Amino acid sequence: MSELKLIWFGHGTTKIETPGGIKILIDPFLSGNPACRPESRNDRDFDLLLVTHGHSDHFGDTLTVLKESGASVACIYEMANYIISKGAHEKRVFGFNIGGTIEFAGLEITMTPALHSSLSFSEGTPVNMGPPVGFILRLEDGRKIYFAGDTDIFSEMEFIAEFHKPFLAVLPIDGYYNMSPRAAARAVQILKCEHVLPVHHSTFPVLWGKPKMLREEMDKLGLENVTMHRVSPGDVITL
User: How far apart are CA 207 and CA 223, in angstroms?
Assistant: First the structure.
């Protein structure tokens, strides 16, 4: 079995290749993502999409990628209904809910809550995409990754740490639409993870939180032994 590979495409979009070779894209914001490399914008080599909420910088190119890649998608129930209404085959759409778990190609995916918003618009009309969520991904080798999605820190992260024990957390740090680097550092402390990948930063000027700030705040909390992955869009992390 191979190693785990992650590629941050910029903003909240991350591609992973699991030890078993399954390719997953989290929040397919590609064509409109100014941080995404051209070759990544055209990537359609995915088996599964995970979509955390309905905002355009996360739902993004979901419908296009589904049509052009043959991938499946897992998301909250209301979003799944919307995707099906746009022509996706229902057998490729996993619509479930917070606390639920699905299996996909030897993986387990559990949906978690998030503190954010999720309303979307289609041709100017509001669309109910359900509440924002995060995901716990259990890999073939038993390790777990927590994709928090867009969120503030919240007390249920204590349960996520105790029950799921993620070795890697993918956390937003921008401090404008999501938690600040200081709050994200506290989330790392609560989650007790060995690795953290900061995302949702540096895409737009309003997103003031930066990885350097997260590292400084983590060190203040005595988290020097937690590996923070400071990468540029397109870089590969191997774990």
Answer: 24
Q: Cα(5)–Cα(23) distance, rounded to whole angstroms?
A: 9
* Nearest-angstrom CA–CA distance, 151 and 173: 9
Residue 181, φ and ψ in degrees, nearest 5: -55, -35
The Cα–Cα gap between 180 and 188 comes to 12
Give the closest residue to 9 by CA, choosing from 38, 50, 51: 38
Question: What distance in Å separates the CA atoms of residue 202 and residue 209, rounded to the nearest whole number?
Answer: 8
For the chain, domain boundaries: 5-238
Classify residue 34 by burial, with Cβ atoms within 10 Å: 0-12, 13-18, 19+.
exposed
**Helix or strand run (H / E) with residue 126:** strand 125-127
Could you report the per-residue pLDDT of 10-33, keeping only the tens digit for each? Answer: 999 999 999 999 999 999 999 999
Q: Classify the phi-psi angles of 192: left when phi > 0, otherwise alpha if psi is within -120 to 50, otherwise beta.
A: left
pTM for the predicted model, two decimal places: 0.97
Topology, domain 5-238: Metallo-beta-lactamase; Chain A (3.60.15)
Pairing mode of beta strands 13-17, 5-10: antiparallel
Q: Per residue in 173-212, pLDDT tens?
A: 999 999 999 999 999 999 999 999 999 999 999 999 999 9
